[in-house]
Write a structure and sequence with these properties.
205 residues, 7 strands, 19% strand, 5 helices, alpha/beta
Length: 205
């Protein structure tokens, strides 16, 4: 769970009928900006399955892992979540196994009231746990988050008692958007195979 800080962020209303398509387009644009020839793409889905408001990352990780055709790597699922207690170890493992990978940080976030249930996407890193006052490593080359609650009058009890249905809808919308982006890139390079980042000729649809 992170707190949205002031930076250039693209906001997408998750209730928009084309929210997944919009996310896919904006994600590909960000990917095009930050990609520097990396062969591996990692989705680092951060959060805990024990707290409703913080379960967004593992829910998305589960969907990406289920539908991944080997084009990218996924860390953080419902079965194997990446959270405050094991994030540093996970980053060490990623650095060892995929030293030049491009990392997409995926997490739940807090924002202002008018941005609740919005998706954010942007270039740069995020600091997981900042919204809950935790001191964790900064992660990611780009990020995708879902704003599950407001940082105004925030409390840990509020995070634990959030309704699950809106969090699940956010996770479904974000998962679809990522998979749409992956499908678009595969179709644009049908003979390449292999990595999601096999070429920098990224198609933005």
């Amino acid at each position: 769970m992170l707190k949205i800080r002031k930076r250039k962020i693209s906001y997408i209303n998750a209730s928009h009928p084309a929210a997944s398509e919009i996310l896919a387009r904006r994600f590909l644009r960000c990917l095009h900006r930050v990609s520097a020839g990396q062969k591996d793409l990692i989705f680092l889905c951060i959060g805990s399955d024990r707290i409703t408001g913080d379960s967004l990352g593992p829910l998305i990780g589960r969907e990406l892992a289920r539908h991944n055709a080997g084009a990218f790597h996924v860390y953080g699922t419902l079965d194997n979540p990446v959270h405050a207690m094991n994030l540093k170890d996970c980053l060490t493992e990623i650095a060892s196994d995929y030293p030049s990978a491009l990392i997409v940080a995926v997490d739940a976030s807090l924002g202002c009231t008018r941005h609740q249930h919005h998706i954010t996407v942007g270039c740069g890193s995020i600091q997981p746990g900042a919204g809950a006052g935790k001191q964790l490593p900064v992660v990611g080359d780009l990020f995708i988050t879902g704003i599950v609650s407001s940082f105004e009058n925030f409390s840990h009890l509020q995070l634990q008692t959030l309704e699950f249905a809106p969090v699940l809808r956010l996770a479904d919308t974000i998962s679809r958007g990522i998979l749409m982006a992956a499908d678009s890139m595969r179709k644009s390079r049908p003979v390449m195979g292999g990595s999601f980042l096999a070429s920098q000729d990224l198609t933005v649809f």
